[in-house]
């Protein structure tokens, strides 16, 4: 599964807002701190406002704040909102299921169903707050010997 730029940008914005605790952050500051183009970010913020994750505070000193507690927003709900599905292939998706002519004799479909289920379980348990309690991943963590050579890619 690979998430789109829009989902990536939405998650960046949610985390940046959550880091502010109870103070608001302007769209300009949000755009600069997350490295997201402002015009694109404005549309994402409108969507997240409608979804009930953020609230906008009008005025000169306004900006955005979380509308829900950071421990009530899961990565799963955000990704589903912007991506439509978590499954890697549509024949195992609940929200975007598309039948396949090979379903009755497909041997690898179960693997993708298991991946979907495990991914959904992890994303649905992971909140903005729980992520903020961890240290960011370092580049060397990604390239650890036990994960290279196809095992973790």
UniProtKB/TrEMBL annotation:
Coiled coil (residue ranges): none
Gene3D superfamilies per UniProt: Winged helix-like DNA-binding domain superfamily/Winged helix DNA-binding domain
Superkingdom of the source species: Bacteria
An annotated Gene Ontology molecular function: DNA-binding transcription factor activity
Gene Ontology annotations for the cellular component aspect, listed alphabetically: cytosol
Pfam families, alphabetized: Rrf2
Keywords: DNA-binding
Annotated PROSITE patterns: HTH_RRF2_2
Protein name (Swiss-Prot/TrEMBL): Rrf2 family transcriptional regulator
UniProt entry tagged with the keyword DNA-binding: yes
Organism phylogeny: Bacteria, Pseudomonadati, Campylobacterota, Epsilonproteobacteria, Campylobacterales
DNA-binding recorded as keyword: yes
